[in-house]
Amino acid sequence: MRRWSTDRILGWAAADFVVLVFALFPVLWIVMLSFKSPATVTDGSFIPNEWSTENYSSIFNGNSPFLDALRNSFGIAAIATVIAVVLASMAAYAIARLNFPGKAIMLGAALMIAMFPPISIVGPLYNMWRNLGLYDTWPGLIIPYLTFALPLAIYTLTAFFREIPWELEQAAQVDGATPFQAFRKIIVPLAAPGVATTAILVFIFCWNDFVFAVSLTSTSAAQTVPAALSQFTGVSQFTAPYGSIAAAAVIVTIPIIILVLFFQRRIVAGLTAGAVKG
């Protein structure tokens, strides 16, 4: 292996530092803004002159819509993730295990749908959901989330299922297990890392969605955090709620940061699964 020179290492380290500062500066700005008092939130300084947790206490009081939005975000994202992972596991197993016509086309269509711009179907969905009574409800968000999360989960899980040695399943069936028992007791445990990775990716997709959340909801009955943030109001019409929005943005980002820090290697593996054929 060729050794890198000291100058080259220092150059790459300097470039990484610049990119890191550039990427983290908006995040640090939001964090600092969230700790400013309402009187100093627009003073233009980066570091607060007086540190305050008033913005955090304001979004957690009983009159704030943030708690309802947080509950909706957790509930809707969790339900959509469970449904998508269960259905995608069975579909990915069939694609990876069975030989049938159109399998490659089906997998390609799943990837295409996952990449489809959500904004293109918001208009028809809005009218359809109003007529069906799904507007401003949890199912009204879960269904469109599944439209995009399910193909993504199928594509990701198929890559994981293809790595499983199928001789283990055949050995279980030789020992008397039914096909479903072999799938449940042999294949599913072996695919657990891939299922967990897919669940994380789907949860992050649902958690971060703004387009559907702001277009298909209007009240705290189903409004998620991204939509609620866009409708935050100040104490009066002359007060901008910058501090409250910053505090809410910090709170809603923490679960994603925790997931990424703990599962970053599995997330990268899920995103690159199938990219290289052995």
Structure, described:
The protein is built from twelve helices and no strands. The mean pLDDT is 83. The chain has 278 residues and is an all-alpha fold. It has helices spanning 6-34, 54-59, 66-97, 103-114, 119-132, 138-161, 167-174, 179-190, 192-208, 211-215, 225-230, 242-272. The radius of gyration is 23 Å and the shape is globular. The chain crosses the membrane at residues 12-35, 74-95, 107-129, 141-161, 182-205, 242-263. InterPro entries: BP-dep_ABC_trans_perm (IPR050901), MetI-like (IPR000515), MetI-like_sf (IPR035906). It comes from Capillimicrobium parvum. Keywords: Cell membrane, Membrane, Transmembrane, Transmembrane helix, Transport. It is found in: Cell membrane.
Count of runs of 4 or more consecutive helical residues: 12
The ordered H/E elements are: HHHHHHHHHHHH
Strand count, sense and closure of the main sheet? Answer: none
Please estimate the helix content.
over 70%
Secondary-structure map with pairings?
Blueprint: H1 6-34, H2 54-59, H3 66-97, H4 103-114, H5 119-132, H6 138-161, H7 167-174, H8 179-190, H9 192-208, H10 211-215, H11 225-230, H12 242-272
Helix pairs in contact: 1-12, 3-6, 3-9, 4-6, 6-9, 7-8, 9-12
Please describe the structure with a list of short key phrases separated by commas or semicolons.
278 residues; mainly alpha; 12 helices; 71% helix
Quick recap of the structure?
With 278 residues, the chain is an all-alpha fold.
